[in-house]
Structure to design on (215 residues):
């Protein structure tokens, strides 16, 4: 995965009022979660704020990144966990990160990239992408930017499911029966099939007609 760096400062005062004041100053409230848990077994987090100008390159992108976060001089390595947006303006209200390390695998959604022109599309069908990401589990250093799937041999009415895929060094966490993509029948494909069937029927009838004419 590509790396990106942002900076932050610890939040000493929490709550809606304090968060609103931070946003007015151009900062977004954030939490960094890790392995630590409280007495009740719930994950604890480090509350910090990051400049919106730095966060936007993490938020508004189709790519996934390893994020290097410097909070008051202390470095952390993390991935994006969740973003909360305003229901009306779509402005980011809060961002959660999850701290990662070299030893423990992580599970994250990786974008799917379809490669090649499917046979079913050449025959007049339409490619349908059912899911845009597949969840994988692996150490973060082994996680690719996208998952390449060859669809060249995919025919009309056929699909590719997660269980049919495998990628070196990655464990697929999405269900095996989940459909990734399929080639749907279209009017053009139906018309082509009808034309081909009629041509086959004519070809089959021609010898019989010739034989009858010869009598």
């Amino acid at each position: 995965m590509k790396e990106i760096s942002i900076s932050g400062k610890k939040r000493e005062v929490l709550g809606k009022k304090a968060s609103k004041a931070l946003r007015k100053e151009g900062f977004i409230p954030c939490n960094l979660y890790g392995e630590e848990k409280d007495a009740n077994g719930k994950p604890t987090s480090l509350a910090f704020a990051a400049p919106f100008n730095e966060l936007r390159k993490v938020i508004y992108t189709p790519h996934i990144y390893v994020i290097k976060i410097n909070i008051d001089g202390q470095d952390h390595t993390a991935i994006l966990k969740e973003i909360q947006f305003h229901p009306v303006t779509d402005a980011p209200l809060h961002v959660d990160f999850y701290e990662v390390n070299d030893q423990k695998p992580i599970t994250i959604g990786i974008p799917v990239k379809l490669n090649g022109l499917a046979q079913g599309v050449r025959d007049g069908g339409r490619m349908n992408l059912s899911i845009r990401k597949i969840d994988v589990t692996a150490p973060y250093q082994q996680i690719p930017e996208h998952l390449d799937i060859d669809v060249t041999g995919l025919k009309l009415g056929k699909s590719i499911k997660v269980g049919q895929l495998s990628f070196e060094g990655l464990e697929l966490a999405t269900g095996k029966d989940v459909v990734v993509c399929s080639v749907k029948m279209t009017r053009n494909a139906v018309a082509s099939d009808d034309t081909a069937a009629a041509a086959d029927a004519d070809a089959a009838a021609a010898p019989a007609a010739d034989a009858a004419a010869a009598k």
About this structure: Residues 187-214 form the longest helix (28 residues). Helices lie at 16-24, 52-59, 119-122, 187-214.
